[in-house]
Each structure stands twice: as structure tokens, then as C-alpha cells.
Amino acid sequence: MARILIADDDTGVREGLAEAVSDLGHETVEAADGETALAAACQGIAAVLLDLRMPGALDGMEVLRRLRDRAGAPPVAILTAYASSTNTIEAMRLGAFDHLTKPVGRADVADLLGRMLRAGTAERLPYGGATEDNPDALIGVSTAMREVQKIIGRVADGDATVLVTGETGTGKEVVARALHRFGRRAAGPFVALNCAAIPADLLEAELFGHAKGAFTGALAERHGAFREAHGGTLFLDEIGDMDLAMQAKILRVVQEREVTPLGGRAVRVDVRIVAATHRDLLVRVRDGAFREDLYYRLAVVPVHLPPLRERPADVVPLAEHFLARLPGQRRLNADAASRLLAHPWPGNARELRNAMERAAALGRGEVIGAADLAFLDGVDLRPGGTEDWLAGDLPTAVARLERAMILRTLRETEGNRAEAARRLGIHRQLLYTKMRQFGLAMVSEEKTGTVRTADGRDSEPDL
Which residues form the Response regulatory domain (predicted)? Predict the structure, then answer.
């Protein structure tokens, strides 16, 4: 039996978690605010379940920060109804054991506590200060994107080389910028170089620089991308298109952290390397087009970004994010959200951003409807339509069916969530969670003309 601290300002949530933990054979200690939680954490606590939003001077993030500064601190898991890329990444880099979105089922509590108690005290990660979302924020509420956010939080402060893979337009550079922005190198430069956009005979000088007079036309010294990124992060995009000769030179730099400018002497560089490619590098290794040793040097921390069609829960949040960056206060109505969810998005997030810019430019009102998205190719969500219900893995297929059923039921009940939950045979709290997950929170407000944001924040409590 272990002592588990449950810190949450919602009495119902605390009691529900305490009951689940007690049923697992553990003793519980409850706290309704940050100050009480910090004091209770000194009382032989083996693990902490911590809410982010709590009253008083200490919110959950500050409690986590102070706990992780203590020697021998217990592992801490964040449970929040308002998960975002910022608080997920920040919590993980502060040393949180995990970051889950409420409501959390009993099976999830059992699994989480089992992992926390087996792990013992989690390794503390250094703190570099919270950072708010910026226009390049890593938007995503799907399970796949939350896992990406957690990886970023765990490795942002280190120097390990990261390899980001995914189709064109999935946001690989956004991941690289998040690694830089949330890490200890955030004050240093971020230098991005597209290896596929530069001719092979010029790429070496772009990467390593050259001395004055190194060749005809070299009228001045040039530092090159590696030295320009000294103290910061170098993002090598589309590294899979680099020729073999240049791969050998990159391998040496990755190993030695030393560059030799054309016509100059070797120079030490302090740089974190993040590489990205839309190609399958293992296939290219097998075909002899990519060096195996370089692949393993780059893929110390692999991060894969699934295509947008495999994470439908991210479509509406991303669309609203792109709209928020444009002039005006445009928003989506329920029909527009449905149209977006029906589109396969072969161009991924980049195509979605362009679609939002086009709809905003051509639309006449503040609310964007399905008619403003007529340029998209529609996809029939009904069984037997053009949607491939069996595409992807089992969780993806199940999520596709859940989204379609919830959307149809909400339309049939004219947004009445209580009636929709009854027809679907699930609890309302689970319905609210699914609506946030699939970006459908606005559907229930359509009768009043109000459009909810895709994070689903409303006045009704969640467990």
C-alpha cells in the first residue's frame, strides 16, 4: 500500500479519484489548493495526482516546479481538463511523470499509478521558464500530437539530436522550433536550412561557410549555418535529399561538433541539431541512398508526425488557430467544422492553413460556413461513402466512427448534449470529452448562434 496525494480544487473530482485509488488498495491524502498540496507532499507520499488549475498563489505548474526542486520528490502526474501544447510540454520538461486529460477512467488511474510506483522518483528536469503559445505553437489535442508534445518536453533541455519524420506539410519545422523555444537554448539562434532547396555544389558553403578568397567570388568570409547557430539550434530540413558525399561531411560534424570552412581551419561549434525529412530513411538506407551510420546519429530521438487525416481531432483546433492569426475575428460554425472534418487533407496542416486564408479572404461575414469552403472536395461520412472506414490502425478507425456518430447524433438532437449522450449510451462527461477531442464542442451551441472554441471550455464541470 502506498500514500497517494490527490490535489484538485474540485471536490467531486477529488472524491472520485480518491475512491478509485482506495479501491486499488492505496491510502489517499487530499488537497484542495497548492499550498496544502506542497505541505502534504512531505508526509511520506509515494505519488502525486495534480490538477493544473487551482485557487490561490500556487497553481499546479508552480506546485510541480517546487516539488521537483526537492530532493527525493515523488513522481507527479498532471491531470487537467484544459490540456494545451504549452502546458503539456512545460509540465513534461519540469519533470512530470505524465500529463493526462480529464476525465480519467479507473483503468487509466490503475495503469498510471502502477507505472508511477514502479518508476519511483522521476528524474528531475531543469526549468527554464514558462513560455506562452506563439504563432508557431504546436497545436494538437489528438493522442498522437500529445505524445509528440510529451517527447518535446522531455528532451527540450538536452543536446540529443532529434530526427522528425512525416509527410510534407505536417509541421516538422514547428516541432523543431518548439524544441528550441522550450529548451535551455531558447535565448540562442534558431537557424533553418532546407537541404533540398540548395544545389549540391553550394550546400557545403551554406552549411560550413568559407574563408575569404577560398574560391573565385569569395570576397568575404562566410560563417555558414553551423556557426550561425552556435549556442542555439540548427534545423536541417529535408536531410533525406542530401547526396552521399555531403552526408559523410555532415556525419563528421554531428560526431565531432567541429566544422571546417572552405579554405579555412576547423572551428568548434556548440549547436543542437534537429533534422527532418518526408522520406523513409530506412528504405533509403536499404537502397544505398542514405548512410546507415548517419541515420543512427540523427535518430537519437525520433519524432514522427502522423498525417492530418489520421488525427481528425486536430483539424478544427488547427483551423481556429490559423483563423486567429488572420486579420478580423472570423470563426467557424458547425457546418464549416463538419466540412473540414470530412476533407482528407492530402496537403496536411499546410493545406488547412491555406484553406483558412482563402475562406477568410473570400468570405463576407465574421462566421465562416460550409458555403465558404465549397472549394474543398467533400467526403461522405456515411458508411459506404468515400470515407475509408478501415484505413489506418484500429484506434484511428474507432475514432473515425466515434466522430461520425457523435456529429450525427448532435445534429439529430439539435445540439442537446444530454439527449445525445442518452442516445449514444454514454455519460455526458464522456460525451463532452469526445466533443473536445474531435473539435465538435461548437455543434451544441449552433441553435443560439454561438460558436464554442475547439478546446471545449464551457461552464459545465468535467471530472
Answer: 3-117
Region 3-119: CATH code? 3.40.50.2300
Euclidean distance between CA atoms 341 and 318, whole angstroms: 11
452 CB-contact burial (10 Å; exposed 0-12 / middle 13-18 / buried 19+): buried
Length of the chain: 463
Pairing mode of beta strands 258-259, 267-268: antiparallel
Name which CATH class applies to 309-448: mainly alpha
Q: Tell me the pTM.
A: 0.67
List where CATH 3.40.50.2300 sits in the chain: 3-119
Q: How many CA atoms lie within 13 A of 187 on its CB side?
A: 3
CA 412-416-419 angle, to 5 degrees, is 80
- Pinpoint the residues of the chain covered by CATH 3.40.50.300: 158-305
Helix and strand numbers (H, E) in the chain are 18, 14
Kind and range of the H or E run holding 37: helix 34-40
Instruction: Tell me how many degrees the CA angle 338-145-254 measures, rounded to the nearest 5.
Output: 140
For 158-305, CATH gives 3.40.50.300
- For residue 350, the one-letter residue type is R
- Supply the DSSP symbol for 445: G
What is the residue-level pLDDT of the chain in tens, covering all 463 positions? 789 999 999 999 999 999 999 999 999 999 999 999 998 888 789 999 999 998 888 999 999 999 888 877 889 999 988 888 888 998 898 889 999 988 888 888 999 998 888 776 333 333 233 333 455 578 888 889 989 999 999 999 999 999 999 999 999 999 999 999 999 999 999 999 999 988 887 898 899 988 776 666 666 778 889 999 999 999 999 999 999 999 999 999 999 999 988 877 889 999 999 999 999 999 999 999 999 999 999 999 999 999 999 998 899 889 999 998 888 888 898 888 888 988 889 899 999 999 999 999 988 788 898 889 988 854 444 344 445 555 666 777 777 788 888 887 887 777 788 888 888 888 888 888 888 777 666 544 443 333 233 333 333 323 2
Question: What nine digits make up the cell of 337?
Answer: 467544422
Q: Report the alpha-carbon distance of residue 320 to residue 204 in Å, rounded.
A: 40
Cell numbers for 383: 458508411
3-state SS, 186-224, equals CCCCEEEEECCCCCHHHHHHHHHCECCCCCCCCCCCECH
The CATH 1.10.8.60 portion of the chain extends over: 309-448
Residue in 398, 442, 405 with CA at minimum distance from that of residue 425: 405
Residues 6+ apart with CB under 8 A from 181: 131, 134, 136
